[in-house]
Amino acid sequence: MPIKVNQINDWVTEIVDFDCASMTAEMQEEAQEAFKLRHVLVFRDQSLTPTELKEFSKRFGPVEVPINQMYAHPECKEVLILSNEIRPDGTAVGLVDGGDGWHSDSSHLLTPAKATILQSIKNPDVGGDTIYCNMHLAFDALPEATKARILGRFGVHNVSKTINPRMTVSANRPDAKEFYEKAAKNRPSVLQPMVRTHPVTGRQSLYVSPRFTIAIDGMPDEQAQPLLDDLFEYVYDERFQYRHVWSDRDLVMWDNRCLNHKATGNLAPGDIRRMHRTVLVGDEAYYSPEGRLRS
Ligand code: OGA
Ligand code: MN
After folding, report:
1. Which of 35, 52, 130, 196 has the greatest number of C-beta atoms within 10 Å?
2. pTM over 0.90
3. Residue 66 CB–ligand 1 contact under 6 Å
4. Which CATH class name applies to 4-280?
């Protein structure tokens, strides 16, 4: 029986009456088909345990183990907790700054994320939306001269905020400064094509972000930084965006190969937001045979 969908726009769809915890092979295939056409799938009223979330995720591909295990769920190392909740002893329940700034998940790794699955456990009364930007549309809309400047070029991606002038280290995350200082030393930059081809649809999209792209390989910063600034100013236009306003128990799966996203934050102290997240590992070879560490 085909799954029921409720189209939100051309590239975002709600999958109706679908229980992720008891997904049959047939349902999985249908969801997979939907994901070829749509870049964001929204499932409502899901109450998966962390282990069920991992199991659901694994049906779509290998699941990443988060590099910061400090905020992994105690029951399941693949599930990362995103939360602004602080325990009475002052420690953080989850990652408070996950989703800061426009980005595509794990583009700082040689095998960047294919998809991310984010489940709302507790939604705040105010704020906490997630915005998505369709990087196919953003690329298509670029002036031809700009396309010509970036086609065939590689962006330099790094996870550390301390070496990224476009980002600031969040003061409200206790381990952030140390984590990013260490990462700047231990986690080498990775090159990613500035324009990538989607392995399933063959469509091109822009694959840069202010959160992770800190330079352009082989281009002096005097030219590269203004070019990146221009791109970032141009691409995050409302025409290319979808804003997800979360309800408790929403589960959203998105395609990192052609989208950027960011958390909008604006949470009031004590107004708790809690999300559980898994990331599906992508396959570098599909789109970037030359993908490599920066020499
Ligand atoms: C993520 C992320 C955004 C949000 O989980 O990768 O960026 O709104 N989340 O929590
Ligand atoms: Mn993210």
Report:
1. 196
2. yes
3. no
4. alpha beta
